[in-house]
Amino acid sequence: MGLKLSQATRGVAPSAVREILKVAEQPDVLSFAGGLPAPELFPVEAIAAAHAAVLEREGRAALQYSTTEGYLPLREWVAADFTARGVPTQADQVLITNGSQQGLDLAARVLLDPGAVVVTENPSYLAALQVFHAARAQVVAVPSDAQGVLPEALAQVLATRDVRLLYLVPNFANPTGATLSLTRRLAVMALAQAHGVPVLEDDPYGALRYHGEPLAPLASLLPELVLSLGTFSKTLAPGLRLGWMRTPRAMRAHLVVAKQASDLHSGTLAQRATVELLRTFDYAAHVEHLRVVYGERCTVMDTTLARELPKGSRWVKPEGGLFFWVTLPEPLDALELLPLAVAQKVAYVPGAPFFVRDAAPNTLRLNFSNRAPADLREGLARLGRLLRVEVAHHAPGRASA
Ligand SMILES: Cc1ncc(COP(=O)(O)O)c(C=O)c1O
Question: Is residue 231 within 6 Å of ligand 1 at its C-beta?
Answer without folding.
Answer: yes
